Amino acid sequence: MSKIIGIDLGTTNSVVAVMEGGEPVVITNSEGGRTTPSVVAFTKDGNRLVGQVAKRQAVTNPENTLYSIKRFMGRQFGEVSEEIKQVPYKVDKGGNGDVSINVDGKHYSPPEIAAMVLQKLKQSAEDYLGSKVEKAVITVPAYFNDAQRQATKDAGKIAGLEVLRIVNEPTAAALAYGLDKKKDEIIAVFDFGGGTFDISVLEVGEGVVEVKSTNGDTHLGGDDVDEVLVGWIIDEFKKDQGIDLHNDKMALQRLKEAAEKAKVELSSAMETEINLPFITADAAGPKHLVTKLTRSKFEQLVEPILKRLMPPVEQAIKDAGLTAKDIEEIVLVGGSTRIPKVQEMVKEFFGKETNKSVNPDEVVALGAAVQAGVLGGEKTDILLLDVTPLSLGIETLGGVSTPMIQKNTTIPTRKSEIFRPRRTIRRPVEVHVIQGERPLASDNKTLGKFHLVGIPPAPRGVPQVEVTFDIDANGIVNVSAKDVGTGREQKITITSSSGLSKEEIDKMMKDAESHAGEDEKKKAAIEARNRLDNLVYSVDKTLGENKDKVDEASVAEIESEIADSKTACRRRCGSYG
C-alpha cells in the first residue's frame, strides 16, 4: 500500500511530510529545502518553474510569476478587488464569475496553479519514498468556507492526488504538538501565516485532540505586512527623489522582496537598511534607493494590521466558554508569529509565555502527516474531533438567515429540520444554502441554490419540507430537501457557484499529467547531457595521460569523437567548460 502524505499548502510556502517509524518527518525538495515557495512562473521560452527557481526569477518576470494564489482559491472575482491590487500578474473574471489568472492569453484557475505546487511536493515525496504517491491529507485555514475547501480538494485532484481529508491548519498543528502529551490540557493555536490568520482553542491529551472553538480572518497575513512596508518605502523614495514607483512592476517586485527581508531582519535586529541600487532612472541617470527602518517605526506602520489579530482571539475564547487564564499553552504557528510585536501581544493577552517547542513553519505539515498516518492505519492511538468554523443554514421568509448547524459544531455532523412554506405553493420550492453569522441571508456567503420540484400546489403552511444538512469530516457540505407529503427529494453537494465542474477538473488533470511527462523528458535529457559531459571529461583526461600508449589512428578517432560530443553538448547546454 502506497504511503499517504501530509501537505501544508501555504500562501507563501508549502511543506510535505510523511510518517516514518511512527513519527512525522518533513521531506526535503529537490533543492534541499524543507519548505517550498508557493510560486509558479512561466518563462518567455515556454518553460514552467515551480518553487525556489520560480521565486528567484520573479524580479525579471513579474507579470508571469504567480504567488499568493491561495488568496484567490474558491472565491469570486467580485470578492478579490483588494487582493488583485497586491499582485503584478493579470487576474480576470472567469466565465462563471470566478477568478481566472491570465498568463500571456492563456487562462488558469487558482486550483490549477495550486495543483502545480502540489505536483512538485508530490514529486519530492515520490523521490524520497522511492514509490508512487496517490493519496494525501491537505490542510486549509480553519476559517476557509465550503467553496475554498472544495477548491483545495480540486487542486489535489488536478495534481493526481486523492485528497482523503481536509484538515484545519491549527488542528493539524495541535495534532503534531499533542502527540506525546499524556495529561489533558487546554491549548490555543495562534496561526498567523502569509495570507491568513486562525485561532483555535483545543483540548489535547492521551491521544485525543478536540477542537472547542475556532475563529480567524482569511484576509490577514504576512503579505499584508509586506504591502504596508512597500507603500512606506515608495512614499519615502517619492519624498526623496520625486519619483513614484507604483506603476513600475519590476521595481515593485524588488520592493516586495526587500520588504519581506526587512521584516525578517527586524525580528532579531532593532534596525535594518533597505538598499536597492539602480531601482529606476530619470533624465539625470540611474537612481538608488537607500533607507533605514527601525523596529519601532516598523511596529508603528503595521499597528493597524496587528490590531485585527486580537478580536478573533477574544471571540474564540468566549465561544469555548473559557477565559484567557484557562489556556494552559499557546502554540505559535506560521512565519508571521516571529514578529516580536505579535509575540508581545499574545503574551500580554494570555498573561503567559508562548510555547517555543514547535517549528512554526513545519508543524502544520507534520500534523497533516499524523492524520495521514491515522487514515493509513499506521497510527491508531489518535482521535481527532474537529469543528465547522461558520454557521450553515438556509434563507427563509423575508430574506432572513435561519442557521441549522451552528459554528463550532463537531464534525462530521447531520441535522434535519422541517419547514412549512408561509405562502401558497404554485411553483418549485427554492432552497438557498448559506454560510456565515449575519442575520440577513444576503450578507452571508451563498454556497448554492437548488429547487425541490414536483410539489403539488397547496395553501400556505400545508406542505412540509424537510431540509437535511450533512457535513463530512472535510467540512464539505451536502444538503437535501424532501417534501414530506409526496416523498420527493432533491440533493446537492455544495461545490459553490465558482467551483470547477467535473469536466474542467478532468481536463486540468490531463494537462497536468502531460506537463509532468514533459518535465520528466526534460529531466531525462538534462541527466543524459550530464552523463555525456562526465564521459567526455573522463575520456579526454585519460587520453591526455596515456597518448603515448595508443596508436595515432585510434588517438585521432577518439579526439574526433570527443570534439563531436563537445559540439553537441555546447549546442544543447550553452558554453562548454
Please describe what this structure looks like.
With 577 residues, this protein is an alpha+beta fold. The chain folds into four domains: 4-220 and 308-387, Nucleotidyltransferase, domain 5 (2-Layer Sandwich); 222-306, ATPase, substrate binding domain, subdomain 4 (Actin, Chain A, domain 4, Alpha-Beta Complex); 392-493, Sandwich (Substrate Binding Domain Of DNAk, Chain A, domain 1), CATH 2.60.34; 502-573. 35% of the residues lie in helices and 29% in strands. Strands 1, 2, 3, 4, 11 and 12 form a six-stranded mixed beta sheet that branches. Strands 18-13-14-15-19-22 form a six-stranded mixed beta sheet. Strands 21-20-24-25 form a four-stranded antiparallel beta sheet, with no helix packed on it. The radius of gyration is 28 Å and the shape is globular. The mean pLDDT is 89.
Précis, in short:
This protein has 577 residues and is α+β, with helices and mostly antiparallel strands. It contains 13 helices and 28 strands. The strands form seven sheets. Strands 1, 2, 3, 4, 11 and 12 form a six-stranded mixed β-sheet that branches.
Number of helices: 13
Shape: globular
CATH topology of the largest domain: Nucleotidyltransferase, domain 5
What would CATH call the architecture of the largest domain? 2-Layer Sandwich
Report the major sheet: 6 strands, mixed
Question: Helix share of residues?
Answer: 25-40%
Alpha carbon gap, first and last residue: 46 Å
Total E-strand runs: 28
Strand content: 25-35%
CATH class of the largest domain: Alpha Beta
Average per-residue pLDDT, rounded, comes to: 89
* SS content category: alpha+beta
Any low-confidence stretches, pLDDT <50, length ≥5? none
Radius of gyration: 28 Å
Number of domain units: 4
| CATH homologous superfamily title of the largest domain | ATPase, nucleotide binding domain
